[in-house]
Specification:
Elements (H helix, E strand, L loop, with lengths): L1 H4 L12 E6 L17 H4 L4 E6 L8 H4 L4 E4 L17 E4 L9 H6 L3 E3 L6 H16 L2 H8 L3 H4 L14 E5 L3 H10 L5 E5 L5 H7 L1 E3 L2 H7 L2 E4 L13 H4 L7 E4 L8 H9 L5 E4 L19 E3 L8 H19 L16 H14 L9
Parallel strand pairs: 1-2, 1-3, 3-4, 4-5, 6-7, 6-9, 7-8, 9-10, 10-11, 11-12
């Protein structure tokens, strides 16, 4: 009798998983993780999350791959308007890094899908990478490395290259955002003078960094070391062209760790071959990777890296943590940091998804900055 009076237990309905995709370029060909420092444990240990992977077709992720996912953590594959799934389930794309030219941000915003970047994980490693390229060039490190490998003959070579000191030189930057500012901060003790061209930065902020804002022509003409730290946009594509390279000092060095298409690569090769500039440090190319017969690969006045000068354990772990935090924020119905286009979060579908996520998964515990 007592049992009959007890209220019947409600059946628990299994909570739908919050499905998170990783682009397949996070994996090696054998399926093992490409980056051991990318810690996926915060996702794997959450019973509400299901991890998967999506593959690209001709480097573009097709919509069919994303049909049943709520979030995507993206490395280098491309997302286009054609990548948007019909299910309207996808809510956030967390780009591993700061460049987003591989993502059609506005197409995603049209569908209420937020594109998020992770500048906090990139700025220090890229800034240090810029310094590494500068020092390798000015200290003639590749040539000295080659001599050292020759044994005694190399050590006694009277024509051993002499490097160039960095103190007293003028370092110019096109772009004074997160990476450009961090570069200035870490190089300030080296005795450089800093100038910058960035129409989006006010003079007061530049002054706080010890940087003088100048026009574009001046940054090309005056810099002993010219660094490219701006995003690739319609206005910056081809910005470093033949006419502007001709303004540079014949003793100047050009450093590009941003995007290859910001410079006219053929014009740069011509300037290097004619010794109109002293050298270049390049982490990015156009096209990328460069062709096997690209003259850049044969020049002894360049130091090259395969778009990886900043790829360190520090960058991978930090970008990974920030991307995961963005995904978890969306799962809990919170707006993540690093959103590229505010139009996305003004879209009704975005607000609907976040409201639904708050109901399904709760607000969660705010982990704060990671």
């Amino acid at each position: 009798m007592q049992d009959r009076l007890r209220p019947a237990r409600r059946r628990r309905t299994a909570l739908p998983k919050f499905r998170v995709a990783l682009s397949a370029d996070f994996l090696k060909p054998d399926g093992s993780p490409a980056f051991s420092d990318f810690d996926l444990e915060p996702l794997r240990s959450d019973e509400r999350v299901e991890l998967g992977e999506v593959r690209a077709l001709d480097d573009v992720i097709p919509a069919s791959e994303l049909e049943h996912f709520d979030a995507l953590i993206l490395l280098a594959h491309q997302l286009r308007r054609s990548s948007l799934p019909q299910s309207r389930r996808l809510g956030v794309v967390a780009r591993f890094g700061v460049g987003y030219d591989s993502v059609d941000v506005e197409a995603l915003a049209d569908a209420g899908v937020a594109t998020v970047i992770t500048p906090g994980g990139v700025q220090r490693p890229v800034a240090v990478g810029i310094l590494a390229l500068i020092l390798a060039l000015m200290h003639r490190l590749p040539a000295k490395d080659k001599l050292a490998r020759q044994g005694a003959a190399g050590f006694l070579d009277p024509s051993a290259p002499i490097g160039i000191g960095i103190a007293g030189k003028t370092l110019g930057t096109i772009g004074l955002g997160n990476i450009g500012s961090e570069m200035v901060r870490i190089m300030s003790p080296l005795g450089l003078t800093f100038i910058a061209h960035d129409p989006n930065v006010d003079a007061a902020r530049a002054l706080d960094l010890g940087v003088k804002l100048v026009d574009l022509e001046t940054v090309f003409r005056v810099s002993d070391i010219l660094t490219i730290n701006c995003p690739l946009t319609g206005s910056t594509r081809g910005l470093v062209n033949a006419a502007r390279l001709a303004m540079m000092k014949p003793t100047a060095f050009l450093i590009n760790t941003a995007r290859g298409a910001i410079m006219d690569q053929d014009a740069l090769i011509e300037a290097l071959l004619a010794r109109r500039i002293a050298g270049a440090g390049l982490d990015v190319f156009d096209p990328e990777p460069p062709r096997a017969d690209d003259p850049l690969l044969t020049l002894d006045t360049v130091v090259l890296a395969p778009h990886s000068i900043a790829m360190t354990d520090e960058l991978i772990s930090r970008c990974g943590a920030l991307a995961i935090q963005a995904v978890l924020d969306v799962m809990h119905g919170r707006e993540p940091q690093g959103i590229v286009s505010r139009r996305a979060v003004e879209h009704p579908d975005w607000r609907r998804r976040l409201a639904a996520n708050r109901v399904k998964y709760g607000s969660g515990v705010q982990n704060g900055p990671v």
